Amino acid sequence: MPAENMRAAWFESFGPAKKVIVVGEQPRPQPGQGEVLVRLRTSGVNPSDVKKRAGSFPALLDQGLVIPNSDGAGVIEAVGDGVEKSRIGERVWVYQAQYGRRFGTAAGYVALDASRAVRLPDNTSFEVGACLGIPVMTAHRCVFADGPVDRQVVLVTGGAGRVGYYAVQWAKAAGATVIASTSNSSDEAVCKSVGADQVFNHREPGWSERVKALNGGKPVDRVIDVEFGANLPEVIQCIRVGGTIATYSSTQVSEPKLPFFKMMYLDLTLRLVIVYAMPEPAKKRAIDDITRFLAEEKLRHRVAHVLPLGELARANELIEQGHAGGCVVVDVEA
Description:
The chain has helices at about 15-20, 45-55, 125-130, 130-145, 165-175, 185-195, 205-215, 230-235, 260-265, 280-295, 310-320; strands spanning about 5-10, 20-25, 35-45, 70-80, 90-95, 110-115, 115-120, 155, 175-180, 200, 220-225, 240-245, 270, 305-310, 325-330. The chain is an alpha/beta fold. The chain has 2 domains: about 5-130 and about 300-330, Quinone Oxidoreductase, Chain A, domain 1 (Alpha-Beta Complex); about 135-275, Medium-chain alcohol dehydrogenases, catalytic domain (Quinone Oxidoreductase, Chain A, domain 1, Alpha-Beta Complex), CATH 3.90.180. The strands form 3 sheets. Strands 3, 4, 5, 6, 7, 14 and 15 form a 7-stranded mixed sheet that branches. It has a 6-stranded parallel sheet with strand order 10-9-8-11-12-13, sandwiched between helices. The two termini are about 30 Å apart.
């Protein structure tokens, strides 16, 4: 009996989104041992997905076409051996769908390890569910990987961005004083709306002095940084001895030169974060906190764009152009 098909988007070569992304029919997957089959409603588009399509992992296509995107949300329709049948019908958000494998969430269905499909509270939309993997888990790791932040002063650069927006919320909820940076007044209001105590424009030259002024003349305890290479010269001027820099991106300066002795004399901890490589206990802690905060409606969300699956290329372009202003989501059923 032939396998049923599903609507999906994929690429078979690297290059510009409009040239390489194809939308059509692909075989519907079946859940294997320990897996669930999720009928997807939404798929989240993140910078790492866009970079993969552009060719940042040259071996990615060695085994054939790739259905992109790691984040998404939907409903469990079937389960494989070893998974409780009671999970069928469960609303879930999924993460790591296209990590170490070729078939992600830009499709009608995805089969993946049951642990990567997390119950989505009834009060949370599928659009928000598609934002929870990379942005929210990355922010959680950046804030909590190096101990409690209660009574600390945390600087979040790019506080209105996909990750920064959640980092502000996690840090504030954990008892930190939060200073956030933005590039415009509208984003300043966004940061303040989710708890930032102070906000400044990181386009001002010498902004490290501004940070210390906002902190009563003192350096900050931690920095959650969106542009490590570009921001490092200012960051080391406003972080305390023994402080921590947690960073998840360095797009503008992809191979930064480190001022080793300045950093060593400050006894700094440098934390490089990518959600896929987080230790499993850290993922569990993040998931537990996300579940609780969603149920109690303690997290705010910015879904900037919801596009149909046929416009996945446009969704990629929004990320590349830096015009997203929040999470970019694809409606798989549209």
